[in-house]
Amino acid sequence: MALKFFNTMGRKLEEFVPLEQGHVRMYTCGPTVYNYPHIGNYRTFVFEDILRRYLKFKGYKVIQIMNLTDIDDKTINGSQKEGIPLAKFTERYTKAFFEDLDALRIERAEHYPKATEFIYEMVRLVKKLIEKGYAYKSEGSIYFDITKFKEYGKLSGLVIGELKAGARVKVDEYKKEEARDFALWKGWDATDGDVFWETEIGKGRPGWHIECSAMSMKLIGETFDIHTGGVDLIFPHHENEIAQSESATGKQFVRFWLHSEHLKIEGQKMAKSLGNFYTLRELTAMRYDPIAVRYLLLSAHYRAQLNFTFEGLQQAASSVGRLRSFAERAESIATTNTYSIKLQQLTDSMFRKFEEAMDTDLDTPVALAALFDYIRDANRILDAAKISEDNKQHMLDALHKIDSVLSVMKTSEEKISPEIQELIKKRDQARAKKDWALADRIRNEISKEGFVVQDTPAGTRVRRESR
Ligand code: AMP
Ligand code: ZN
Predict the structure, then answer these.
(1) Atom 5 in ligand 1: residue holding the nearest Cα
(2) CB–CB of 24/60 below 8 Å?
């Protein structure tokens, strides 16, 4: 079956064929590292992870770039409020971001360019836009003239009114109704403090939009396959990226634009500015399993809004539990010589349905429904009859391949701290010496840290307790 994505450009489902056979180049707008990302941000990053993993599932080699916005209005404000250098301020949140990515099993991209490391490329791009007549200087800053790019608005469907021509906006974020010439380069003023670069186009700093154009074109070329982000980035960020890039190169910038819908809470967008958010660390401190959060975020279709509730998170945790129990059962089941054609067919049919659903614009709810139907029916078969080694391998291969995309079934990737590992070792030693009292005490100690302790023939096993 052909892989299809809903392209925001043109708003239709299109067959995905990359520019270079077998290779996909994609750019994802990364976090602005000025705060701990909330789980709304992670909805978008989990969607991008599913996209990346599914492209690999389909056999593509993926080169993914995720930038780190370490200079913009928000990062400068934050560092000034704390009175620490910008780099030190952004480093703290960059580190936290990578910790969260690991906890959510978001695969690493190939590159994480920092905006501050590409200032030269940005300056070059701005210069080119001035030379070509798309940009002009005003009060020390440089602006993009949106009337010069005839296709301005083609992504968001915006039509620029006459009145807006010539009006300027220096801030990075603004609304569609306020479409204006936007700042490519912001001339230094006192509010920037010591954050500036002395360049050929003046003393100042880049605007947010030019960062992504410069970094993506430098790292994956002037035209690439996929660009992603949350829907809030369609305007102005992505519209402006297109205007800058296509005006500079005269070529199509991006072939497929994929945008994920918002995570909401009580009917409103989860947003830092509204204060209605949960960070991943808040949820893990409440003993929620990060993989339940991952599951919750991926269980809705990425283009449908999702409302966050604790009941939903609890249901996600129990779904993860069901998937894991089945995966464990499948792994440990004893086999005989009896081949089950029924199980073989059931496995094939589930796998086909999973792929068909994912091929259709990453339809995760349908893909998960096929998986849960399978678990119910396969459990019945396993209860009633014996299966062969062939059946078992076939089942395990399918689950393994599916989990290379979902990454929620395996428990082995769980991060167990060295302290807990030491306790596990001591407990196994105590059990070997039949010192049950000590083994029980250690079990309690481990449980207090939020783990479920299981005795298995291979020794003590622990997994994070989820609620
Ligand atoms: P930021 O760090 O604010 O630049 O955002 C990082 C990513 O998170 C962007 O792709 C945003 O579109 C996305 N995002 C922000 N809020 C939400 C939300 N409530 N739901 C889904 N994605 C979001
Ligand atoms: Zn961006």
Answers:
(1) 31
(2) yes
* 466 pLDDT above the threshold of 80: no
Atom 23, ligand 1: which residue's CA is nearest? 41
Classify the C-alpha dihedral 129-134-138-143 as positive or negative: negative
Verify whether ligand 1 is closer than 6 Å to residue 44 (CB atom): yes
Q: What percent of the chain has pLDDT over 70?
A: 96
Atom of ligand 1 minimally distant from the CA of 33? 2
What is the Å distance from ligand 2's center to 119 Cα? 15
Dihedral sign of CA atoms 168, 172, 177, 182 in order: positive
**Dihedral, 168, 174, 175, 181 alpha carbons, nearest 10:** 20
Rounded to the nearest whole angstrom, what is the distance from the C-alpha of residue 349 to the centroid of ligand 1? Answer: 36
For residue range 67-87, list pLDDT tens digits in order.
999 999 899 999 999 999 999
pLDDT mean over 251-266: 97
CA pair distance 331, 326, nearest whole angstrom: 8
* Domain boundaries 4-260, corresponding CATH code: 3.40.50.620
263 lines ligand 1 (CB under 6 A): yes
pTM (2 decimals)? 0.89
The ligand that comes nearest to the alpha carbon of residue 270 is 1
Distance CA 36, CA 249 (A): 36
Can you give the residue ranges of every domain in the chain? 4-260, 268-406, 418-464
Provide the residue count of the chain. 467
- At the topology level, CATH places domain 268-406 in Isoleucyl-tRNA Synthetase; Domain 1 (1.10.730)
